[in-house]
Amino acid sequence: MLFNTIDFVIFLPIAIFLYYLIPQKYRWIMLLTASYYFYMSWKVEYIFLIAFSTLIDYSTGILMEKSSTKRKRRLLLILSLTTNLGLLFFFKYFNFAANNLNEFLDQFSVKQNVPLMNFLLPVGISFYTFQTLSYSIDVYYGRQKAEKHLGYFALYVSFFPQLVAGPIERFSKLTPQFKVKHVFTYDNLANGLRLILYGLFIKMVIADNLAILVDEVYSAPENFSSFDIFKGLMLYSFQIYSDFYGYSIIAIGSAQLMGIKLMDNFRTPYLAKNISEFWQRWHISLSTWFRDYLYFPLGGNRVSKQRWIFNILIVFVVSGLWHGASWTFLIWGALFGIVYMIEHFFNKSMKITKEFKPYSFGHFALALKTFIIVTLIWVFFRSDSFESAMNIFKLLFENIGMSGAELVIPNFLIVFFSLFIISDLLLYNKRFDNWLGNFPAIGRWTVYGVLIFAIIVFAGVEDFPFIYFQF
Question: Where are the transmembrane segments (predicted)?
């Protein structure tokens, strides 16, 4: 079930109505049922994967807390890690590993190939796997008490607003909210609907219309001049941003309707002054997950310079592989790591980043530099293969001055895209619902009217799934 479908428009109000109608002590049953139904609308069979992962981590959490020795707790943690990561590897990375192994064996004329599997990737498996793993790791280290109520734990793993594409929530933040009685309030209704409306606008009007133009460039880059190719690359930067940002704030808004607060996943990332700040503002729930559960355990920055470089590369390469089973994702992550380190050492020696205040000329100059770097690295993320990505870069230089096909942006998209950019500039370190809530009534309703009109009239004619659903 997609957020931008009639099915969800019907499903969400029913879920919210039942949520407030049912007594507090039974709400977890209603939410768990709604969440499982929400997920089963894609593929019924895959709900058993979530249920299996839930039972494993629920059981190991309780047993870890009861275990008297560190060795037993470690074995239980290993069971949780191998089960969850094993499922993730099997469904997401098996064919990638098999293909590369087969290519390696072919070099030695070995004809015995590893057979490939033919199945659909379970939607959201990377998200709910990381969410439940964070719980097991926290219980192991004593940072979190084990949850004794299976229903609440199952709801933590499968809560429908953020189940398939995050934000990746921590148990200590999300689960206590399920146990508190939330009453219906105007503020929750208004703020939730504002976020949902804005999220639908930037997904359906901005991202989906940009997708058509981006597909034109990536499907036949040889037909375009260098200028139009680069224009297409920049449009993809905003397509993936508006697509994933749109999903995230719809998720946050849907939970807000029930009084449940999810973490912000984006904070104007293209206004970041460097790559480090970019990852503090982009997909925040994932970057903080890698910081807490990979970077810090590796030693963080409390190690030698050589080991710190290794830690940074590992984090970014694993982040790339998290996004997809492809060499292009691995290269994408590695490039971010390399640029991150270059900027770190440069900024440390020059000491220039902290001198610029928000909206100053220096801030915008650094933000433009960061945006161009990120845009070029996105090429590996968007391309189907390494060869396709390198072809894009080659044509960027070869097609200078070429008079080929023109990438034409429709006038209506220029208008709404400009409004989106302006709003993003105004939302630096702010959130849309709180920002708009400070407007006078006539201003708020004018914005509502523009957004609703744009969605009804100018939503993309093609249905593009949310990009991050594939991860």
Answer: 5-22, 46-63, 75-96, 116-137, 244-263, 308-323, 329-347, 359-381, 407-429, 441-461
In the set 149, 182, 283, 323, the catalytic residue is 323
pLDDT at residue 353 greater than cutoff 60: no
Kindly report the number of other CB atoms within 10 A of residue 288's CB atom: 17
Q: 323-332: string of b/e by CB count within 10 Å (b at 16+)?
A: bbbbbbbbbb
Q: Does an H or E element contain 81, and which?
A: helix 70-88
- Taking the C-alpha atoms of residue 194 and residue 425, their distance in angstroms, rounded to an integer, is 18
64-114: per-residue pLDDT in tens? 999 888 899 999 999 999 999 999 999 998 888 888 888 777 777 777 677
Q: Cα(23)–Cα(9) distance, rounded to whole angstroms?
A: 24
**Of residues 187, 94, 134, the one with CA closest to residue 293:** 134
Given pLDDT bands bounded at 50, 70 and 90, which one contains residue 121?
confident
Rounded distance between C-alpha atoms, residue 332 and residue 327, angstroms: 8
The CA–CA distances, whole Å, from 208 to 211, 273, 413 equal: 5, 28, 11
323 belongs to the catalytic site: yes
Task: Find the angle CA(338)-CA(343)-CA(348) to the nearest 5 degrees.
Answer: 135
Rounded distance, CA 339 to CA 25, Å?
50
CA angle at 246 for the pair 244 and 249, rounded to the nearest 5°: 110
- For the entire predicted model, the pTM comes to 0.93
Residues in CB range of 80: below 8 A, 6 or more apart: 56, 57, 60, 61, 133, 136
Give rounded-to-5 percent helix, strand, coil for the chain. 75, 0, 25
Q: How many CA atoms lie within 13 A of 56 on its CB side?
A: 22
Evaluate whether 124 touches 163 at the Cβ level (below 8 Å): yes
Give SS3 for 405: strand
Domain positions in the chain: 6-181, 187-273+356-470
The number of angstroms, rounded, from the C-alpha of 139 to the middle of its chain's C-alpha atoms is 25
Read off the pLDDT of residues 179-230 as tens digits, 9 standing for 90 and up: 999 999 999 999 999 999 999 999 999 999 999 999 999 999 999 999 999 9
* Element holding 110 (H helix, E strand): none
